Amino acid sequence: MSKTKQLMNMIKLERFIETLPENEKQSFFEKFIGEDEIEKKPKKVSSRKGSITTSNHIDYDKALNKGLSMLGTKNENFGFYIIVAIHTGLRIGDILNIKRRHFENDTYTFREQKTGKPKTIRFNKHITDYFLQLKNKSETPFKSNKGTTYTRQQINRKIKQAFKTKDKNYSSHSLRKSFGRKVYDDNEQSENSLVLLSKLYNHSNLKVTRDYLDITQEILEDIYMSI
To answer: Do the beta carbons of residue 90 and residue 101 sit within 8 Å?
Structure first.
């Protein structure tokens, strides 16, 4: 299936969902996700009206290799941040709050800073293997060379330095998007994967998820180049 047809099918699916009554929307998502996993509509959180993230996603393999290359160097704590970000899809504030004792367990349950909603994640082999090799054995895994926990500004600055580019805008959101693109690609770019990611990201609809992951823009660019 061409990318153009794929985009059209996604748009049709999204439009179909939007036409359903609220009670039928619930039933529709239960078929994709499962009744026990459906959450109530989250409360609105304060944010700048109309604001969107303009950060581009970083290719998963590129981010993975960059993070692994920092193991054993003075930047390995930052490398660990990269590894955690691309394998959990968490926001920067939630990642920086994770302590050593949490990584020593297979799962981690917490409340998201932005939404206040409870969330449980599992640490995969990429994360646990890197964690066990860290020289830093303090309770704060994401410790800067100054001995304090990285700030958001420091993380964003180091991301721009590590992934230098002229035509892309990279930030902590970029690694969160790397996770989503990896899930999307590994599931054959299916609508089902977008439904699951939309739920994971707490997005209001599939269009937001497609735009967030740069999918819509890439398909539109392919359309221009195909003419």
So the answer is: no
For residue 183, being part of any structural domain is answered with: no
Per-residue pLDDT tens over the stretch 100-146: 999 999 899 999 999 899 999 999 999 999 999 999 999 999 999 99
77 burial (CB, 10 Å; 0-12 / 13-18 / 19+) is buried
pTM of the model: 0.74
Q: What Å distances lie between residue 198 and 25, 32, 159, CA to CA? A: 14, 12, 25
- What domain range is 114 assigned to? 60-177
- Looking at beta carbons, which pairs linking 157-161 to residues 24 or more positions away fall under 8 Å? 158/75, 158/78
Which letter does DSSP use for residue 149 in this model?
B
Task: Judge if 93 and 144 occupy the same domain.
Answer: yes
Render pLDDT for 11-69 as a digit per residue (tens, 0 to 9). Answer: 556 666 666 665 555 555 555 444 433 333 333 333 444 444 578 999 999 999 999 99
User: What SS3 state is found at 207?
Assistant: helix
Q: Which two tokens stand for residue 84?
A: 């955690």
* Phi (first) and psi of residue 122, to 5 degrees: -115, 145
